[in-house]
Amino acid sequence: MTEEPITISAALATFDALWSPRVAARVNDHDVRLAKVHGDHVWHAHADTDEFFLVLEGELLIGLRGPEGERTVRLTAGGMFTVPRDTEHRPSAPDGAVLLLVETSGTLSVGDRHEEVPDHVDATTGHPLTG
I need a labelling partner for 82 at 20 to 30 A (CA). Which of 15, 45, 56, 108 fits? Predict the structure, then answer.
């Protein structure tokens, strides 16, 4: 992170890895993360924190599992949604997307409970933004 202003486009130009969020800023005890995604993430839940999604480019589908069953939230560029804490969810971007995420610092990208993590998913608390 830097103490200088950054543009989202410049930050995104510093990495290509999918499902591998970069911490672009910190606000109090939260990370502002940028991610490039394509395909499916894993079903997971964050026991103690909500997760905020803002789609910058493309389309994101968020599968949700709750007491009332399963549903899917569809977000296009400019769309935002907050997954409530302890809600099982699976982000998916069949054609690719660019996301801005806000999560409590230290939150794993695969949550506290998750299914097996495939090789294409980076189970991380967010990589530093470099460049």
Answer: 15
Residue corresponding to tokens 């470099």: 130
Distances (CA, A) of 18 to 48, 65, 69, 84, 111: 25, 24, 29, 24, 17
Alpha-carbon span 114 to 109, nearest angstrom: 10
DSSP character at residue 84 = P
- In the three-class reduction of DSSP (H, G, I as helix; E, B as strand; rest coil), residue 11 is classed as helix
pLDDT in tens, the chain (131 residues): 567 899 999 999 999 999 999 999 999 999 999 999 999 999 999 999 999 999 999 999 999 998 899 999 999 999 999 999 999 999 999 999 999 999 999 998 888 887 788 787 777 888 888 86
CATH topology of domain 8-128: Jelly Rolls (2.60.120)
> Phi and psi dihedrals of 10, rounded to 5?
-65, -40
- For the chain, strand residue ranges (E) read 22-27, 30-40, 44-45, 51-66, 69-76, 80-83, 88-104, 113-114, 127-128
